[in-house]
Amino acid sequence: MKEDTRHLKFTRATLCLAVLTFASTGHAQSQDNEHDETDEKRFSAEVSAGLEYSSNVSIDELDVVSDTSDIAALLGFELGYELDITSKTSFDIEYSFSQTIHEELDQFNLLTHFGSANLSQDLGRVGVGLSYRYLDASLDGPESMNYRQAAPYLTALFGKTIFVRAEYGQADKEFDVDLGRDAEVESFGTDWFYFLGSPRNYFLVGYRNDQHDAISTEYVYEQDNFKLHFVKRFDVFGRPGKLNVGLRYETRDYEFITASIGVPREEERRKFRLSLELPFTDHVGTIFKYEVRDIESNLPEANRSEQVGSIKFVANF
User: Could you give the CA distance from residue 138 to residue 124 in angstroms, rounded to a whole number?
Assistant: First the structure.
């Protein structure tokens, strides 16, 4: 089961900053050409299916809240390709598809396509790279969101215990229905990894700032996002498992007056997440997740809380 690399959100965080690139850099070239061909070209595939329960189904980006609980089926697959261009230069691409199918709230069924490409150069304890990410998310109806981002980044390893990744991004966000939400997004973020004896166990401390310059002044805002995670990898009968406990705190300050409330909109968003990955075989496993999401806003329709639990079965090849 792979690291979740998504940090863009539609109903949940679907795009997170991908790090630990040093774990795959410095790959030594073999003198055997056939050995090179096997090691340097790597394909991967993953399929998943599961169930999710939400106490208050909602769509963050559209400020749509159901005030109703529901169960949804989760379906998805992912394809990846990695290429070591040289011993210091690597390129990888990824495509994933996901679909939620609710038992009652069909209008909240969500289909997403996500693609990414990443080019990185290892310079020893420092690395540089360029990422491109694409997200298309659509509801069961005309509403959809399209997100495209290009982001150069820098990585650095300090000793054996600290790894840092800093990224600057430029993105375009487009909506099919409410065109006033269309925006150009400028962002800067950094993640700090503190390893506890080995890369298997670490704390992650992160910060990201986003500037949303939307067509409609009601959606122009600045966002600060803070996160703290603890990740522990362990063996289950000789196979890898993973525990991830995370906290996220986010503030949004809107620059102009929101007409429905007569003042600029302000929000605080908090999320607690617990996930556990357990293997059954070398290629099949399960993922349990539990999240508590809470949004405090002076815009009544955006003010909400939600608990989400899910179980997903995953097979990778």
Answer: 42
Residue 193, burial from CB neighbour count under 10 angstroms (0-12, 13-18, 19+): buried
- Of 264, 278, 271, nearest to 248 (Cα)? 271
Yes or no: say if 304 and 288 are a contact pair by the CB < 8 Å rule.
no
Token pair for 245: 């406990």
Fold annotation for 6-316: Porin (2.40.160)
Q: In this structure, what token pair is assigned to residue 9? A: 């959100």
**Per-residue pLDDT at 301:** 83
| Residue 267 C-beta-side C-alpha neighbours within 13 Å | 27
The percent of residues above 70 in pLDDT, for the chain, comes to 86
Contacts of 35 by beta carbon, 8 Å cutoff, 6+ apart = none
Domain boundaries, the chain: 6-316
Element housing 40 (H / E): helix 33-40
Q: Classify residue 256 as exposed, middle or buried by CB count within 10 Å of its CB (0-12, 13-18, 19+).
A: middle
- Distance in Å from the first CA to the final CA of the chain: 10
How far, in whole angstroms, is CA 82 from its chain's centroid? 19
pLDDT, tens digit (0-9, with 9 covering 90-100), for 127-182: 999 999 999 999 887 778 999 999 999 999 999 899 999 999 999 999 988 889 99
What CA–CA distance (Å, rounded) separates 77 from 75?
A: 7
Question: Which single residue is written with the structure tokens 């659509």?
Answer: 138
pTM: 0.82
Among residues 126, 114, 43, 52, the alpha carbon closest in space to that of 83 is found at: 43
From CA 116, how far away is CA 93, in angstroms rounded? 6
Round to whole Å and give the CA distance between 187 and 212. 9
Give residue-wise pLDDT tens across range 2-61: 444 333 333 333 323 233 333 333 333 333 343 344 444 589 999 999 999 999 998 877
Within 10 A of 169 (CB to CB), how many other CB atoms are there? 21
- Rounded Cα distance, 10 and 14, in Å: 7
